[in-house]
């Protein structure tokens, strides 16, 4: 048996589709706050374009990638930023969708899930969280 301790417990609304958490992105003195869904199937953290524009970023100056989904593909641009999710702060690369019509915000495997320990009790709407490497 393995015992795991978590520093944070967060109750999310089980009536909503997905697990939604607050996110704040920082670039110097500017910040952009919004909600995002935890997506264990997403490779990257991908956010709406407007969240990067609020930081004053020139979105297309980031690293361009094409992201494929089961039904389509789209272009996004990567920027290295500080991200705060609940009480866990990381410096990471996140991506902003090129198109304004992209209206999702997801926390994916690279850039967020690979930096946390995550526990989930969905029946209770409880998310347990720790920064990876912390006890």
Summarize the structure.
The chain has 135 residues and is mainly β. Helices cover 4% and strands 49% of the residues.
Assess the beta-strand content as a share of residues. Answer: over 45%
Q: What is the name of the CATH architecture?
A: Beta Barrel
Which word captures the global form?
globular
N-end to C-end Cα span: 17 Å
Mean pLDDT: 94
Order of helices and strands: EEEEHEEEEEE
Q: Helices and strands: which structural class?
A: mainly beta
CATH class: Mainly Beta
Largest sheet: 7 strands, mixed
Low-confidence stretches: none
Query: How many domains, as an integer?
Result: 1
CATH fold group:
Cathepsin D, subunit A, domain 1
Counting DSSP H or I runs of 4 or more residues, the number of helices is 1
Instruction: Give the CATH H-level superfamily.
Output: Acid Proteases
**What is the helix fraction of residues, given as a range?**
under 10%
What is the number of E strands?
10
Could you characterize the architecture of this molecule?
The structure is a single chain. A hairpin with a 4-residue loop joins strand 5 and strand 6. The model has no long low-confidence stretch (mean pLDDT 94). With 135 residues, this protein is mainly beta. It is built from 1 helix and 10 strands, in the order ββββαββββββ. Strands 2, 3, 4, 5, 6, 7 and 8 form a 7-stranded mixed β-sheet that branches. A 3-stranded antiparallel β-sheet has the order 1-10-9, with no helix packed on it. It is globular. The longest helix has 5 residues. It has a single domain, classed as Cathepsin D, subunit A, domain 1 (Beta Barrel), CATH 2.40.70.10.
């Amino acid at each position: 048996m393995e015992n795991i301790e978590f520093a944070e417990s967060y109750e999310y609304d089980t009536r909503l589709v997905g697990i939604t958490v607050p996110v704040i992105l920082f670039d110097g003195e500017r910040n952009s706050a919004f909600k995002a869904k935890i997506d264990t199937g997403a490779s990257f953290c991908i956010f709406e374009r407007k969240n990067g524009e609020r930081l004053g970023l020139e979105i297309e100056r980031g690293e361009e990638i094409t992201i494929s989904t089961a039904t389509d593909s789209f272009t996004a641009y990567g920027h290295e930023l500080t991200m705060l999710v609940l009480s866990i702060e990381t410096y990471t690369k996140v991506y902003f969708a090129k198109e304004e019509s992209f209206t999702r915000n997801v926390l994916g495997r690279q850039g967020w899930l690979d930096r946390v320990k995550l526990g989930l009790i969905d029946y209770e709407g409880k998310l347990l969280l720790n920064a990876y490497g912390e006890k």
